[in-house]
Amino acid sequence: MTAAEVFPDNETVVTALRLACCAPSAHNTQPWRWRVGRSSIRLHADQTRRLTAADPDGRDLVISCGAALHHLVTALAAFGWRSRVHRGPDPADPTLLAEVELTSAPPSRAEVLAASAIIRRRSDRRGYAEWPVEDTPLREMIRAAAELGVLVQVVTGPARARLAELTNLANSLRSNASHDEMAAWSGRHSGSVDGVPSANTPREVRYGDLVTRRFSAPGLASPQGGAGTLLVLGTESDDRESRLRAGEATSAVTLAATASRLVSCPITQSLESPSSRARVRAEVVGNTMVPQMVVRVGRPMAGAGELPRTPRRPVTDVLDFV
Fold first, then answer.
1. InterPro entries, alphabetically (predicted)?
2. Residue range 40-69: average pLDDT?
3. Confidence (pLDDT) at 191
4. CATH fold of the domain at 135-298
C-alpha cells in the first residue's frame, strides 16, 4: 500500500478542514485548532476563544468543537476517506479533544449528499413557517444523532411551552458581562472573520412564544413567523466526551435538516447556567437525559431569501502541520 492510500494529500486535508470550519459555534467564535501529522488529524480546543461569561466551564466550546469534528468526518467521507475517531483526554495535552485516523473507502451517494449540505447550512435566526416538520425528516435527524450516541427528544405540548418559558427567562436574566460579551461578538461588519454579522441577525426577536437572542446592530429583515419544531439533544452523562458527541450530533442534525430543505438554528440560552439546565432536565425532558443543545428546525418562510454566509477564519490560522 502506498503512502497516498494511507493518508490523504495535503490539498485534500486542507479542503476538508475548510469545510470542517464551516461548522456552527457559539457566537461564531470558531474555538478549534487542528494539528495534522503523518497519519492522523488532531482536534484541539482553543481556550483563548472561550466565552467567559456565557460559557464559564467551556461546555459550549467543546460542543462547538464537536460540530467541527463531525463536519470534518463528513467532508472526508465524501472525498473517499473513512474516519476512525478516538475521543478522550490526553494527560499530556488537556486541549486535545479527538484524533482522527483514516482509511481509504469509496464514498456512498449519501455521504456525498451529506457533505454537500455543509456549504448550504446556515444558522437561520429568522421566523419559520407555521406548519410542523414532517415525520420523515425528523426520523432522519433522530437517527443521525443516535449513531453518535446522542438522544433527540421532539418537544411538544406542555413541555414545549415550558422550554420556551425557560428560554425567555434565561434571556431576561443574562448578566451585564454576558450582554457585553454578546455585543463584542455580534454586529460585525462584512470584513470580519468571526463573530455574528449584522446581515445574519434579525431585528425581530420573538417568534410565537419563543424569544430569541437580541444581537448587536441587527440588520436582517425577518417576516413574522413561528419558532418551528424544537429538538432537545441530550446524553446519558455530562463528561467532556458526552459534550463533544453532543456537538457532533448538532452537526449531524443540522446537516440532515439542510439536506431535507429545512432551516435550523441551535439555541443555548436555557442551557448556559447549571440551574437552568437542571430545570430543562427536570421540567422539559423528564430526567431522561442530560440536555446539551436545543435546535429549532422548520420550513423557511415564503420569500425569506437565502442568508449570506457567515465569516470564517482563514484555515491557515487554525491549522498546523506537525
1. Nitroreductase-like, Nitroreductase/BluB
2. 96
3. 80
4. NADH Oxidase (3.40.109)
